[in-house]
Amino acid sequence: MAKPRFLLIYDFLHSKDFGGLEQLMATHARMLNDAGYKTKLLFADIDPIMYKNEIYQGLELEEYGSKKLSGTLKIMSSILGLNNLKHIIKPNNIIISYSFPVNMTIKKFDNIKINYVNHFPHWLYLKIPERWVWANNSIRKIAFFYSLVLGPITKHYDQKYIKKCDLVFMNSKFTKRRLDSLYEINGIVSYPPVDSIFKPSISNNILDKFQIKGSYLFSSGRIIPDKRIDLLLEAYAKSKQQIPLIISGKGSELNNLNRLAEQLNIKDKVKFVGFVTTEELIHLYSSAEAYIMPTPKEDYGLGTVQAISCGCPLIVWDDNGGSCEQCIDGTNGYKAKPYDIEDMAKKIDLCIDSKFKETHSKEILESARIFSEEEQRDIFINGIISAIKPKDLNTGKEQ
Predict the structure, then answer these.
(1) Is 113 in contact with 166 (CB distance < 8 Å)?
(2) How far apart are CA 233 and CA 271, in angstroms?
(3) Distance (Å, rounded) from C-alpha 286 to C-alpha 357?
(4) Is residue 278 domain-shared with residue 292, that is, in the same domain?
(5) Contact at 8 Å (CB) between 270 and 224?
(6) 385/389 Cα distance (integer angstroms)
(7) Does residue 216 form part of some domain?
(8) Helix axis angle, 20-34 to 302-309, nearest 10°
(9) Which residues of 150-169 are buried (b: 16+ CB within 10 A; e: fewer)?
(10) Alpha-carbon distance 111 to 49, whole Å?
(11) HSE of 72, CA atoms in CB hemisphere, 13 A
């Protein structure tokens, strides 16, 4: 019998909201391809520019939302059934869902279903003030107001459809601790693997492009409120460092952060460089004296793993979040007391003054090994094989 095709499904693929999850889907697709399976990445709405993104070259992408609609309306209507999935999904396809809306969208399909959980739906389970901070774009605001009215019944269906999955992956031990009890399941931890291209590499041409001279600190990611880059700026302002702070990424919070940098009198030392390519990101990690993750209780933190893979030490919050899970205090970086600006400033100074990157280069790279594709591929593929082996892949039913 021919091997089944895997359909990896998420809500949207937009350049302005492009993040770690979308990159992870591409990595999973390549892992499955290498294992001899065919794959297709499906999104309700795709920004046309993303078809040319280097991350997806060689992979098959398809939009399943209604061609008659666009944007948020296309995504929302897809959940309600106005989509083209019935023409795409075949009986022996195996579906990997990456979100609760997708779980709702595919509920009528009697296929083998796998769920990869990065975090619980923030718009359902966060406290209302935190939920409002999270709702920083039109799609999230719709979800926020929806949750105020239909949150309880939606939580019921969220938990129902997770339990119906044949296999549930969690992206970290932190996520597993939070969600196993919530969903009454036993998820498998499968870390989002770091692409093998992330390794120490320094290009003076790339540093020149961003007008970076000498040592610097680095952070990256979407420039949005829930990433709490304001905490990073405040900690940096309290440190004694004169080396620049470079921050890459795009998002709605940029103007506010520029104003904050001016208020803190660090505007001349902080540089927001906007979107960077994967190649540029590798060199920015590799050349930095430290990578700082200011997001509280990050569910995983792809940036921190990519950083140590490039030999860059970490400074994170000691809050049991995903990034904290990756940082071995004193071995590949330092952990600051949770949300203590003064302590993070001290950790920044300690890392630089002790020449930590230079003296711990071997330990930093060794700590990244567990997050490599080689280490995580077996966990991901073997977990899937174990889940689908008892099934008849033609029908999705038990043999």
Answers:
(1) yes
(2) 11
(3) 10
(4) yes
(5) no
(6) 6
(7) yes
(8) 60
(9) ebeebbeebbebbeebbbbb
(10) 31
(11) 7
User: What's residue 119's pLDDT?
Assistant: 80
Determine how many CB atoms are found less than 10 A away from the CB of residue 63: 20
Q: Give this prediction's pTM.
A: 0.77
pLDDT of residue 397: 45
What is the count of structural domains for the chain?
Answer: 2
Residue 390 has a pLDDT of 61
- State how far the Cα of 227 lies from the Cα of 230, in Å rounded to an integer: 8
**Do 229 and 170 fall into the same domain?**
no
Q: Which residues pair with 245 in a beta bridge?
A: 217, 270
Residue 120 belongs to what domain range? 5-193+373-398
Tokens 């008892």: give the residue.
390
Q: CA 157, CA 108: separation in Å to the nearest integer?
A: 13
Assess whether 335 and 381 both reside in one domain: no
Chain mean pLDDT for the chain: 91
Residue with tokens 């020149």: 208
Q: Where are the alpha helices (DSSP H) in 36-137?
A: 71-79, 100-105, 122-125, 128-134
Q: Are residues 75 and 177 in the same domain?
A: yes
Q: Contact, 266 vs 329, CB < 8 A?
A: no
d(CA 384, CA 336): 37
Interatomic CA distance for residues 160 and 328, integer angstroms: 37
Looking at the structure, do residues 134 and 56 belong to the same domain, yes or no? Answer: yes
Residue 249 identity (one-letter amino acid): G
Nearest to 28 by CA among 94, 120, 110, 85: 94
Cα separation, 158 vs 137, whole angstroms? 22
Same-domain pairing of 282 and 219? yes
**Among the listed residues 168, 171, 196, 203, the one whose alpha carbon sits nearest the alpha carbon of residue 183:** 168
Give domain status of residue 287, yes or no. Answer: yes
Buried b (16+ CB within 10 A) or exposed e, 195-230: beebbbeeeeebbeebebeeebbbbbbbbbbbbbbb
Q: Are residues 78 and 160 in the same domain?
A: yes
**39, part of any domain:** yes
Say which CATH number the domain at 43 has: 3.40.50.2000
Alpha carbons 258 and 250: distance in angstroms, whole number: 13
User: With a cut of 50, which residues of the chain have pLDDT below it?
Assistant: 393-399
